Amino acid sequence: MTIIFILMSALMPKTFFSLYNLQSMAFQISGFGFLVIAQMIAIISGGIDLSIVSIMSVSGISAALIMTKFINESSSSGNVILIVILTILVTLVVSVACGFINGLLIGYVGVPPILATLGTMSLFMGVGVIITGARGIVGFPSGFLKIGTGTVFQIPIPLIILVVMSLLVALILNKTVFGLKLYMLGSNPIASIFTGINNKLMLLGTYMLGGFMTGMSAIILIAQANSAKSGYGSGFLIQSIIAVILGGIDPAGGLGSIAGVIIGILIIQMIQSGFNMMGMNIFWTNIIFGTVLIIVMIINLYLERISFREKKTISK
Question: Fewer CB within 10 A of the end CB, N or C, for the chain?
Fold first, then answer.
C-alpha cells in the first residue's frame, strides 16, 4: 500500500497528494468499502457473492422511489426527517431480504454460492430495470444527501459510518460465537457439522449480514450521486473481490481479518483514483484490474503449494 501511495504521489505530485484528492478518496472509499465487507463475509464462509452490486442497486432504487414519491417542496422538515428514516429502514430491509434469498438458496437448497449469486445477480438487476425502465431516479432531499456528502470537522460523514461499522464487524468476527462459527464453517464445513454448528442457518445469517452491508453501501452511494439507477457501480464487483484477496482473505474461506481488508480497500481506491486522474479509459481500467486479480490468485496458489510442501516435509 505504501509503495502504491509513493508511486502515485511521484507520478502526480501536485494533485494526488493534495488535500482535495485525499478527501475525495475518503468519500469514494465509503460506499465501495461496504461492498467489500459484504464480499469478505461471504468469502470467509467459503462462498462468494456475485450479487452485491445488484442488491445495492435494487435497494437503492427502493430508497429513491420512496423519497421521490412522498417528499416534495411542500413537505415539512419533520415529515422529511421521518420519510428519510423510513427510507433508510426500507433500504436495509430490502437488502437483507435479498441476502436472505441468497442464504436460502445456498444453505437450504444447496445451490453452490457462485451459481446461486450469479442467478440472483441477474434477478435483482432485472427487477431494478423493470421498476425504473432503465432510467435514473433523481432528486433527493438535502438532509438525505448529507449522509453521503456531509462532513464533521472536515471528516466525511460516510467515512465515519464506514469506520464505525467496520469496528462492529471486527467485533462480530472476533468476539462473538457467530464469528467463531463463521470461521469454522469456512475452514471445514464438514467438521463444523460435527461440532454442532447448523451450517444451513449460519449460511443464511452470513448472507443476510452481507446484505445489510450492501444496503449501507446503497444508502451512501445514492446520497453521493443524488440518483439511483439499475446497473450503477457495476465495476465494483471485480474490485471488491480483488480488495478482499489483497486484504489476505483466503479464497477458500476460513481465514482473514477486517484490518487486512481495509488495507485492500485503500490499495484499490488509490489505484482507481490514480487512473481517474490520468484520464485512463474505463475499459483499460477493467483490463488492469482483471489482470491483477488473476496474478494475485496465481501467487496465492503458488504460496499455498509451497506451504503444503513445507508442512509435508516437516511431518516426515
Answer: C
Does residue 101 lie within any of the structural domains? yes
3-state secondary structure of 67: helix
CB 254 within 8 A of CB 187: yes
Nearest-5° Cα angle at 234, 20 to 278: 40
Domain count, the chain: 1
Question: Which of the 8 DSSP states describes residue 152?
Answer: E
Do the domain assignments include residue 169?
Answer: yes
Q: The pTM is what?
A: 0.89
Q: Which domain holds residue 151?
A: 23-233
Grid-cell match 468476527, residue found = 173
Query: What is the distance between the alpha carbons of residues 52 and 38, in angstroms, rounded to a whole number?
Result: 7
pLDDT digits (tens, 9 = 90+) for 209-220: 999 999 999 999
Residues 268-299 have pLDDT tens digits of 888 877 777 777 777 777 788 788 778 877 87
